[in-house]
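Entry 14. Ran structure prediction on the chain below.
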Amino acid sequence: MTIRRAHPIESTALKELRTADDAGRRMRPVTDEEGGAPLRCCLRRSAPGERIALVSYAPLRRWAAGTGADPGAYDEQGPAFIHAEECGGPDGDDLPFADAHRTVRRYSADGRILGGRLVESGAFEEAFTEAFADPEVALLHVRAVEYGCFLYEVRRPR
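Output, structure tokens:
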């Protein structure tokens, strides 16, 4: 079994998002009283009392900027929770947010969507293996089913 690495939002992007998000809005930090928000900076759920922010994030746009791809209409942005201040990133290699149904979207090297799959808890490795069996798949996005929010990306193994 080969668990692929989940990639959080990269530190350079996080620094930018803490100034202005991908919709051009300034970050508005809040104290998370309840906890449980899925943080895309460190790939864990927030704890009560942590300072977090909900920002607009365009994961495919940012990936495309680094690769030269043009995702066209697939360039979407949506809400993402991050720590309001810099954090240490993920702690370990465990697959995050795998305790519920998720959607795994497949993207080509030119940023076009190649399909997706609803994945049940415990079946992520199978879904990743199936996706990367297609040589056209360069990148996967794991998203929440209930809101469609981006959770993290998984890149083709090198």
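The beta strands are 30-31, 38-39, 44-45, 51-57, 78-83, 102-108, 113-119, 137-144, 150-155. Will compare against last week's run tomorrow.
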